[in-house]
Amino acid sequence: MTHTPETHALEKAAASLAVEHGRPTRAKAFEAVRRALHSVSSDESDAARELMHIYAYFMPAPPKKPKTAFDWVAAAVATDKNELRQYLRFVRIFDNGDRVATDGKRLHLDRGTGDAPGWYAPNGSVTAAPWEGCEYPDYQVPVSRTFSADRSVTTEDQARWERFPNVGPNGKRVAVRVAELSLGDGLYLDDRYLQAALQGFSVPVIHYDSATPDNGVAITEYGDTPQDARRIAVIMPFRL
User: Fold this and answer.
1) pLDDT tens, position by position, for the chain (240 residues)?
2) Do 103 and 230 form a contact (C-beta atoms < 8 A)?
3) Residue among 219, 78, 195, 70 at smallest CA distance from 143
4) Beta bridge partners of residue 141, listed in sequence order
5) Cα separation of 63 and 164, whole Å?
6) Cα(161)–Cα(141) distance, integer angstroms
7) Contact at 8 Å (CB) between 49 and 119?
8) Is the separation of the CB atoms in 74 and 61 below 8 Å?
9) Edge-to-edge strands of the sheet including 204-208?
């Protein structure tokens, strides 16, 4: 085998996993790759990037029920192991303390957390940073939009929402109509995305455009606007 930075990276991960006791598991593989990743020297950027792809593959899934503010943000990371933009599988914390996660169709943002900047796995473990320089989506664009209408969301509202099962590319999604628009169209959201977003708020308010579904919705705490909210979720519309 020709030794390249990439094969050297794989050897480090394999060697780390080999010393584990008992049968290898996904959790052990994730931890082994994490250790190998942190042992890669700064001049082995190609090796680090290759390990980062393996690290993302074995990434633990975000918690189904968030217990912390970090968990809520992490719920929006991309979970598809075939996602080409593997950096979307991480929570990104920027220099200003903004904690962000997005899969390209939704976004969860917690502003000014004070956490150390970097790339974090959904379980909260910090990683090395071979993704530095990647064009992470500009999260300020969707949260800076001005919406023409809003409505608070109660438990009774959620019970009344009309749901449309067995939709989407694989027929396994559920769409929810959360509002009627001025031209008679409905505003539909992915129910899984919506339920995950609502868990971050005590009294959630949905902000939307009454004339078009194109901008999707922003969700904030009651009394906040998307521009000044400390915490905000953005969900793009579901097309039936």
Assistant:
1) 444 444 455 445 554 554 555 566 666 766 676 676 666 655 556 666 677 677 777 777 787 889 999 999 999 999 887 777 878 888 999 999 999 999 999 999 999 888 998 888 888 877 655 556 677 889 998 888 889 999 999 989 899 999 999 988 788 899 999 988 877 788 999 999 999 999 999 999 999 998 888 888 999 999 999 999 999 999 999 887
2) no
3) 219
4) none
5) 26
6) 28
7) no
8) no
9) 118-120, 91-93, 99-102, 106-110, 231-235, 217-221, 204-208, 149-152
Q: What is the DSSP letter of 61?
A: P
Among 75, 20, 94, residue whose Cα is nearest residue 198: 75
Alpha helices of 19-134 — where are they, by DSSP H?
26-39, 45-57, 69-74
Query: The pTM is what?
Result: 0.81
Q: Could you tell me the two tokens for 116? A: 């150390």
Extract the tokens encoding 1: 């085998």
As given in the structure block, the two tokens for residue 82 are 């075939």
For residue 43, the Cα-to-chain-centroid distance in whole angstroms is 30
What's the token pair of residue 101? 């996660």
